[in-house]
Write a structure and sequence with these properties.
alpha/beta; TIM Barrel; four-stranded parallel beta sheet; 28% helix
């Protein structure tokens, strides 16, 4: 019998006929071996059999030589969709990413007041919607402390889904991406269900699997206000028939405790995100002194491998920046991660000079494009398994050039 979501949209085409060339198998986190090869196979369904069977440990090691055929089989993850070209976390942005060749689209998930998961970079929506121009919601403006940081504005958890649906998205960084502002006011805030429906439709239309790579945003905070993200996430994936080892799904978080919990409830790959500085919010709340730097050590990565299948580090943790802002040498992180069979998906690759290493910027303004292909080449040579990209077409072109 077909599995359906709440609005009766059928997901059988995506879940039962995804043309994945690997058999379903249980993820066995905590036992190193060939687990990432199975994950890689499920994730890169449209790639060649050779790419599917390449284990991460075949890539560069700590202090080792760059791997051969660097870039082959690397996943392209549309970061917030194709956010270099459309306002982020809109169905238009996600669809464009898929059409540009992204293997996965990445929605950040937050909750509404009535417990529906929607896609926003943060629960604060003042910078990404027109809520400030809606007088009927003026009294919703408030100040909150989230993960120890004070924020003033409007927040998804104070709106019902019906109310959020009256708002329209806008470009988050208009000073850098002015061209995206022509789309301000055109797109709704999508629900997670709607994102899955889009993946289903595009998979059928494009003839290749379009995966989904959701992130749980601020899970400790949402749990503290009685709106935990995990039950709705698990229920949505269950309802869509996507809670299985060969589903085209990764689930990610900057926190550790909710991934450990999800390890008992989900059968899809889990990804521990890592910031270059600071401490996971859940560890800080629990009085645990471990920092992201501690998690990135060999011992920390071995612990991550007991509950997750990949890491998503700040890209400066993979290839360092020199003191003058130029691109430096690869760190040992990829080798350390691969040694415990963790995939490595660094973030975020962007085309504009503003975001590039100093030596890869072109003459002109901060919004002009720089030599991002050289940056991709350096990370492919370092042995990464995937990249989060605001400009998925550029990432695909860089991969194809290898």
């Amino acid at each position: 019998m077909p599995v359906t979501v709440a609005d009766n949209t059928c997901f059988t085409g995506w879940t039962s006929n995804s043309h994945l060339p690997v058999a379903a198998r249980s993820l066995d986190r905590g036992k190193v071996g060939n687990v990432p090869s199975a994950i890689q196979g499920a994730a890169v369904a449209a790639f060649t059999a050779a790419a599917l069977t390449t284990a991460p440990t075949g890539a560069s090691g700590a202090g080792g030589k760059p791997r051969e055929n660097a870039g082959a089989g690397v996943l392209v993850i549309g970061h917030r969709g194709a956010s270099g070209y459309r306002p982020e976390h809109t169905l238009a942005s996600y669809e464009l990413a898929a059409r540009m060749g992204a293997d996965f689209i990445e929605p950040d998930l937050v909750s509404t007041s009535d417990g529906v998961l929607v896609a926003r970079h943060e629960s604060a929506i003042g910078d990404t919607t027109d809520v400030a121009n809606r007088p009927q919601f003026a009294d919703r403006r408030t100040t909150k402390t989230i993960d120890g940081v004070e924020h003033t504005g409007w927040f998804t958890e104070d709106f019902t889904l019906a109310e959020l649906k009256t708002l329209r998205a806008k470009e988050r960084i208009p000073a850098i991406r002015q061209e995206n502002t022509i789309y301000d006011g055109r797109f709704e805030i999508p629900t997670f269900d709607e994102v899955l429906q889009l993946c289903e439709r595009l998979t059928e239309e494009l003839g290749r699997v379009i995966g989904v790579y959701p992130e749980t945003k601020h899970p400790t905070y949402f749990a503290s206000i009685g709106k935990p993200l995990e039950p709705a996430l698990v229920a949505t994936l269950d309802r869509a028939g996507l809670n299985r080892p060969d589903a085209p799904v990764f689930v990610q978080s900057f926190e550790t405790a909710n991934l450990r919990k999800l390890n008992d409830e989900l059968h899809v790959p889990l990804v521990q995100l890592l910031e270059a500085k600071g401490i996971p919010a859940d560890l800080a709340a629990a009085g645990d002194p471990r920092t992201y730097a501690d998690l990135a050590t060999p011992a920390g990565l071995a612990d991550i491998a007991s509950y997750a299948d990949a890491i998503g580090p700040d890209k400066n943790m993979v290839v360092a920046r020199n003191a003058d802002g130029t691109l430096g040498a690869p760190t040992p992180l990829v080798g350390y991660a691969h040694a415990v069979n963790l995939l490595v998906h660094p973030y975020t690759f962007r085309n504009e000079n503003h975001f590039l290493p100093a030596n890869l910027r072109t003459t002109g303004s901060a919004v002009d494009y720089g030599n991002v292909f050289a940056e991709y080449a350096a990370f492919f040579a370092a042995g990464v398994d995937g990249v989060f990209a605001d400009n998925p077409d550029t990432a695909v072109a860089a991969r194809e050039a290898q």
